[in-house]
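Reopening this ticket.

The earlier resolution said the output was attached, but the attachment link was broken on my side. Pasting everything inline this time so it's all in one place.
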Amino acid sequence: MTQIRTRMLAGVSVPDTPVVGRAIEYARDACEPYLFNHVVRSWLFAVRIGELQHVEYDPDVLAVGTLLHDITLNERFDGPRRFEVEAADLARSFARAGGFDERQAQLIWDSVALNSTASIALYKEAEVALCTAGICLDVIGLQYELLPQADIARIVEEFPRLEMKRRMSRCFCHIAETHPETTYDNFVAAFGTRNVSGYKAVSATDLVENAPFAE
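Inline output:
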C-alpha cells in the first residue's frame, strides 16, 4: 500500500491528504456541530477498529465515506429519497471531483448509502464495513468493548457528543413526519412508530399478500 502523509487526531493516526481536508470542511459546513463531531468520532473509531483487527483498506476512501455519511441528516431534509441515498450521491460527486477513480467513488457511495444497514454493510468491502462499524459504535455502541476505554474517552473528550441522542432522534422523527415514504423499510420507521402521531409504516406482510399474482 502506498504510504501517505498522516497526522494525529485525538490520539489516532489519520491521513493528512488534501481530499480528506476538503471532506472535513465539507462535513463541517453541512452538519450541525453535534453531527460534525459524530462523523469525526465515527471516522476515528473506524480507523482504530481497522488497526486493532489488522484490516487493509484505502484510508482516503474510509475517511471520505465516514465523514460525509450524514451530510443530509438535518431538519431541512426534503427528500425525495432516503437521506442516506441523497447523501451518497453527493459524496460520490465529491469523490469524483476529488480525483477518486470509479471503484473508489462507488465504495464511498456504498459506505454512505448502507451506513445504517449494518446487516449488509458489515459484510461488504473493508472500507464499507469499517465505515459502518465506526458509525454503529458511536450511535448504538456496537463493538464498544473492542476499543480500549482510554481511546474512546479521548475521542469523546476532543469531539463531545453535544446531546447527540436527543438531536439525532429529532432529525429521524422529522423525516418520519415529513417524508414517511422514505422510512417504511428502514430503521427510521421505529422513530416514526414511537414518536410521530399518525405515523403508520407499510407492512411487508401486506405487500407480499397484496402482490398482483394469484399465488
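Reporter confirms the inline version is readable. The mean pLDDT is 96. The beta strands are 6-9, 12-15.
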